[in-house]
Amino acid sequence: MLFFPLSITLPVAALAAGMEALWGYPAPLLNVIGHPVMWVGTLIDRLERALNRADTPERTRRLLGFVTLALIIAIPVTLTSLLLGVGYTLLPAPVMLLVQAALASTLVAQRSLWQHVRAVATALRHNGLTGGRKAVSMIVGRDTTTLDEAGIVRAALESLAENFSDGIVAPLFWTALFGLPGAVFYKSVNTADSMIGHLNQRYGAFGMASAKLDDLINLPASRLAALCLMLASPRQQWPHIWRTITRDAPRHRSPNAGWPEAAMAAALNTLLAGPRSYGGKLTKDPWIGSGTSGATVTDLDRGLRLYRRACGLLIAGLLCVALGGMIAG
């Protein structure tokens, strides 16, 4: 892995966040070459099919899952480091800083997350429950066919909060520490967790290493995401939001998702999480927040505005830290 000083990685993260907020991932590029996460997904799928055999003993499957995770990290990060090394020998450092930022921006999802969640609000308004259920099914894994408006809105808000952490704060956090290789490292692990880090018969042993590492590397970002959502709220709400975070975040079944979800719930004065259905089976997850469970599409609009302010705050913070580092250096 190629290491860069913070005087490079911090500006890369700040520029990547700004670039992605402005234009997202270009659709023509997606149509021609796909998305980097799709490339990693293809690697994961091939390794899983080759190594995760149902007749293999559980201990061996755990070991093979660890080997798979190591390859999932090593291959993309090594290729990225080699390409950057070549780039820095051919191009001036300021140009390569912009190249790093542009490439890192493809691993951030501010714009696409906003578009997907906004689509839920638009569908609810124009196509009612049928449209809302279809739109929210694109961003959540729970059963959506019987959700009412409140259930649709809560699902969308939870996805917005959790993915603010996983899809924006976390990749930028690792970019700020290690540049583009850090972003590639994070997205490789996060993609592995989303594909094989499931507690079921097929993936329980094989994907355990991916799930555990994903929990670990998301720990700082989830706390930072909650802080951003709190600071993006009116100042008089901060004590209430902080109390809700510290009280309810540990109650979530995920060690990380509860933090931004609790911040979102408190900021909007609504309840999130709670019982939901997966594959026809109802879970008994506790509620997060202390408001009402009867969320409306107006609450989703408020959540989107809060999200945009939090993203702006994050970008501003990265820019300030980067500029401060450049001045101090």
Catalogue the unreliable spans. Answer: none
Radius of gyration computed on alpha carbons: 20 Å
Summed up, the domain count is 1
* Strand order in the largest sheet: 1-4
| Largest beta-sheet details | 2 strands, antiparallel
Q: Note the run of SSEs as H and E.
A: HHHHHHHHHHEEEEH
Number of strands: 4
SS field, number of helical segments: 11
Structural overview:
By secondary structure, the protein is mostly helical. The chain has one domain (6-328). Helix content is 73%, strand content 2%. The strands form 2 sheets. A two-stranded antiparallel sheet has the order 1-4. The chain has a two-stranded antiparallel ribbon with strand order 2-3. Strand 2 (277-278) and strand 3 (281-282) form a beta hairpin. Helix 9 packs antiparallel against helix 10. The protein starts with 5 loop residues before the first helix and ends with a helix. The model has no long low-confidence stretch (mean pLDDT 93). Pathway: Cofactor biosynthesis; adenosylcobalamin biosynthesis.
List the main descriptive attributes of the protein structure presented here.
329 residues; mainly alpha; two-stranded antiparallel sheet; 11 helices; 4 strands; globular
